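Tutorial handout. Part one gives the primary structure; part two gives the three-dimensional structure as tokens.
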Amino acid sequence: MAAPIMSRSQRRTEKKQATTLLTLVFAVALVSFLLGFLLGRWSAPQEIPETVFAPASPPRIAVPEPPLATQESVETALPPEELPLTFFETLPKGEAAPMGSGINLPPEGTVKERSEATTSPPLPSTTSKVEPSKAKSEPAAVTGGLYLVQVASFGRDEDAEHLCARLRTKGISAYREKIDLQEKGLWYRVYSGPFASKAEANVLAARLKKEEKLSPMVRKQ
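Part two.
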């Protein structure tokens, strides 16, 4: 049986249908590929970068530095026990004191005037009642002994008075004496005594050296 002869228009229609079918198949394949690719990317696990938080450093608080102590405050804070008294150690034992050292013996005229003032006849007693003075600047030096203990010597009267007051609180008799050393100026010596024997004076000198860290010396009155 002979195949039917197709007309030219039928052939064109078949070709057009075949082309359309191929184009549709290709388009479907392309869309499927794109959809698969996109779905694969979306379904893949995404790496989330880890964020490391550094601990916040505490704020620094500025601490003000304490002010430096002035020279005057240091001098006032220095206790009397630490006053420089080393010049007593430089005095040779058994020899005359060097001039201008601040520990020279008082002039003969000063000793004579003091002895004359102490040996003056006593005033006659009166019946009137005399009130004791409220403020006593300095106790009078007791005479009649042979030895004195020169405790210390200061360039300021306040330092000498402070040492006298501290010794009196310990039951030690003490008084100060002003000496004019001319070029060296006025010095204030602290004495204790008098004592009837040198041994008694040495006992007090050893006590002052141990307790007060001083360098006292024993001399004749």
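Part three, for discussion. Strands lie at 147-154, 175-180, 186-195, 217-220. The domain at 147-221 is CATH 3.30.70.1070 (Alpha-Beta Plaits).
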